Amino acid sequence: MKVSGSDPLSRLRDLLEKIGESDRAQRSEDRPSQRSADGSQTAAAGDMVDLSTRARELRSLREAVEASPESRRELVARLRDEIASGRYRIDGSRIVDGLLAEQDELDQ
Fold first, then answer.
1. Sequence-separated (6 or more) residues with CB below 8 Å from residue 35
2. pLDDT, tens digit, for every residue of 59-83?
3. CB within 8 Å of 19: residues ≥ 6 apart
């Protein structure tokens, strides 16, 4: 299995920023405007913001990404190095113990 060199958290942050920029651009296009006395356009007074379900999900996802521990990156980097050098060993008994514990939780 190949582990890519890019950090998934930073890729997710970039994606969220792009989506946020796209949403902001769309909202500014959809916003009603008024002509001022000098002919320039201004936003209508009392604009309302109504967050869609998608926007709330994106906000929640962004908060989760920002709250993720930095130590996870260190773990991923260490595991990547171990896999690349052939030092990574799989402990089958730990995997089985974890699966059985998870099954016990589901059965309760």
1. 41, 42
2. 888 888 777 777 777 888 999 999 9
3. 58
